[in-house]
């Protein structure tokens, strides 16, 4: 079945239909209209899968996709143009240009944490670049995956864009096929499996992965704002965000104030401590993993949970060490461990203990400190005096480095990701320079030199 879909997409791609500008624009419109048509069902499936509220669903899923579609529609004509570049002296009067072309048939594999956005945002890039696509959403958000199937089958024929649902075995079958591009979002471990499968066909990949993203708060920072923005990053989607601040490095002189302000921020987010609107932990395995991470740690705020709805209260854990279990892997939950420091260099050394993170956040009013951290730590992207919101600007390419990913997307970068740039030299037939032809004599060499 998978093979049939791939073959029909390759045939459809060969027809040339997807390359046309009007076709791409119309397809982006169809995607937008289908999302809007199913908006109520998207909201109810997000509620069922994650307890995600309507507002959070719009802000973190639907709104981001609609903005991306508009951005692509505004710029597509310009992006599709061939670009003339300088011709070297030896090639005059020929002409050189670079022309964008779609890769062909692409595979998009997505995780569960932003189940709609992480399927459809890369799809926008695939459509605007003129590819056909197969989408494999996550098996852990079955209601949303069903709606994604409806959105897509309502708008597009299978030979152009289709959804294959399933888990490891279905993805493994898909990965046996020869795709022209694979776009994967998920964990670093599965990223390695995807890259290894892609290498069998020399298929290029984008890997959008995770990691432990630090937040640093120095002694010059606005503590009230820092606490509010870090709390936002840890609470939205219950911390199940690839760019959530994973742990906090804070100057010891402002730690107590930060803890008070963090508490105040939570009180302002959840009136009367009603956290019923907060997203739940995705499944039993992750819920138990997070509960275990809190065990034996010094909890200074939060720490309660609710087995019935798999809910974990936003939690602060004081002074963890490098060997604490919570510092081993990406937390992916609403728990923030705190490590205090005296000297900024300690932070840089501390961060170097981990793989390169997807994001880094520095809260500071001190230009030198900001430059020191952003200049010496390697990370995918991030914010100064904020968390997470860097990913909402289509002018900022989004992606990791090292263990947190390969490649990037959003905005023009999405178009580039799904595009092969073909370099072409158009030779003139008016005259022919003889030097390049054999025989290669010393006399020729002297003239050329
Ligand atoms: P995951 O890697 O377990 O799963 C991602 C996808 O891969 C799913 O569709 C799943 O069905 C498939 N998959 C899982 N195991 C597989 C296997 N053995 N072989 C083939 N396919 C397999 O990730 P997840 O738990 O769904 O998502 C959480 C991870 O994703 C976190 O590490 C997070 O940081 C990362 N993430 C990264 C970004 C980003 O943009 N960089 C965004 C969201 C999540």
UniProtKB/TrEMBL annotation:
The active site is at residues 208, 242. Pfam families: Aldedh. GO terms for cellular component: cytoplasm. GO terms for biological process: aldehyde metabolic process. Keywords: NAD, Oxidoreductase. GO terms for molecular function: aldehyde dehydrogenase (NAD+) activity. Residues 2-424 form the Aldehyde dehydrogenase domain. Belongs to the aldehyde dehydrogenase family. PANTHER family: ALDEHYDE DEHYDROGENASE, ALDEHYDE DEHYDROGENASE TYPE III, ISOFORM Q. This is Aldehyde dehydrogenase.
């Amino acid at each position: 079945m998978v093979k049939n879909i791939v073959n029909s997409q390759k045939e459809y791609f060969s027809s040339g239909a997807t390359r046309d500008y009007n076709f791409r624009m119309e397809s982006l419109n169809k995607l937008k209209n289908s999302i809007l048509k199913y908006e109520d069902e998207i909201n109810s499936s997000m509620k069922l899968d994650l307890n995600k509220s309507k507002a959070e669903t719009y802000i973190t899923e639907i709104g981001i996709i609609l903005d991306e579609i508009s951005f692509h529609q505004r710029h597509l004509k310009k992006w599709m143009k061939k670009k003339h570049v300088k011709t070297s002296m030896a090639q005059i009067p020929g002409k050189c240009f670079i022309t964008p072309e779609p890769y062909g048939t692409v595979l998009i594999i997505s995780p569960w944490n932003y189940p709609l956005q992480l399927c459809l945002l890369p799809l926008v890039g695939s459509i605007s670049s003129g590819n056909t696509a197969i989408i494999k959403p996550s098996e852990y958000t079955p209601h949303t995956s069903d709606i994604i199937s409806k959105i897509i089958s309502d708008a597009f024929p299978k030979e152009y864009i289709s959804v294959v649902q399933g888990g490891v075995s279905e993805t493994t079958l898909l990965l046996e096929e020869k795709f022209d591009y694979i776009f994967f979002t998920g964990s670093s471990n599965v990223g390695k499996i995807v890259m290894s499968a892609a290498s069998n066909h020399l298929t290029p990949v984008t890997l959008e992965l995770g990691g432990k993203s630090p937040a640093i708060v120095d002694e010059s920072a606005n503590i009230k704002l820092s606490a509010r923005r870090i709390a936002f990053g840890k609470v939205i989607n219950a911390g199940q965000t690839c760019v959530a601040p994973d742990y906090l490095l804070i100057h010891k002189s402002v730690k107590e104030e930060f803890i008070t302000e963090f508490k105040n921020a939570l009180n302002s987010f959840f009136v009367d401590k009603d956290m019923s609107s907060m997203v739940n932990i995705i499944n039993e395995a992750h819920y138990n993993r997070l509960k275990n991470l809190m065990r034996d740690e010094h909890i200074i705020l939060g720490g309660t949970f609710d087995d019935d709805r798999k809910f974990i209260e936003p939690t602060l854990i004081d002074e963890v060490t490098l060997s604490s279990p919570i510092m081993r892997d990406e937390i992916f939950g609403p728990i923030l461990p705190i490590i205090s420091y005296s000297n900024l260099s300690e932070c840089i050394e501390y961060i170097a203990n981990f793989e390169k993170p997807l994001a880094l956040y520095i809260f500071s009013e001190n230009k030198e400190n900001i430059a020191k951290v952003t200049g010496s730590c390697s990370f995918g992207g991030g914010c100064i005096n904020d968390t997470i919101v860097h990913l909402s600007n289509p002018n900022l390419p989004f992606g990791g480095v090292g263990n947190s990913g390969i490649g990037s997307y959003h905005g023009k970068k999405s178009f580039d990701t799904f595009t092969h740039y073909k370099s072409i030299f158009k030779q003139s037939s008016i005259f022919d320079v003889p030097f390049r032809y054999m025989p290669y004599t010393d006399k020729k060499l002297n003239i050329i030199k």
